[in-house]
């Protein structure tokens, strides 16, 4: 198993750093508990699982980080698509109502964004969330002016866990996967970033560390205050300064 020091060296392999890509749910903000509450309440209302509320473990395993069409197909295999997606739309309406009261940023996100902005790195948000959700969350976090680009999974040929959304972000930013890394919190998102050829930093905000590492995460952090993250970033800043002096 790699050591903390080995994990932190991942930035050395992509120097010089050009861009940083972020998922949104569970990565910029601690939104998974809100999604879980909305799913649990609405599924119980319609008598799903004989009216027994879904557990958090069920949510993490089968719902978190996945695209709405995939979730609908899993939850309602016997429903027609229109009916299943109507349920998903109702859930998103409930989610957006709750978000206005309950959304919290992941600790340290604004500190990290400041670090990225000061170095003029390119940045994009890449999510399987519906556009209306994504734009609302980014706005509520005060990050509307931070991102150069917002990529929505359903607007790509394939959503995460396929690499298409991340490849679209790289193309839109004009960035190379060899000089870019990703922040993600879900198995599907990590698989998408890895498949797009980038190292992925996994946040343990909602999923067990062993699942994130198994999906291919290079470094695991609790939040953006994590010392291991800042050691890696400081080492990258030192390398960048050395390159500037050499030029």
Automatic annotation (TrEMBL):
It holds the Pfam family HAD_2. It comes from Spirodela intermedia (Intermediate duckweed). InterPro entries: Beta-PGM-like, HAD-like_sf, HAD-SF_hydro_IA, HAD_2, HAD_sf, PGP-like_dom2. Keywords: Carbohydrate metabolism, Magnesium, Metal-binding. This is Uncharacterized protein. The lineage of its organism: Eukaryota, Viridiplantae, Streptophyta, Embryophyta, Tracheophyta. The keyword Metal-binding applies. PANTHER family: 6-PHOSPHOGLUCONATE PHOSPHATASE (PTHR46193), HEXITOL PHOSPHATASE B (PTHR46193:SF18). GO terms for molecular function: catalytic activity; metal ion binding. It comes from the Eukaryota. The keyword Magnesium applies. Its cofactor is Mg(2+).
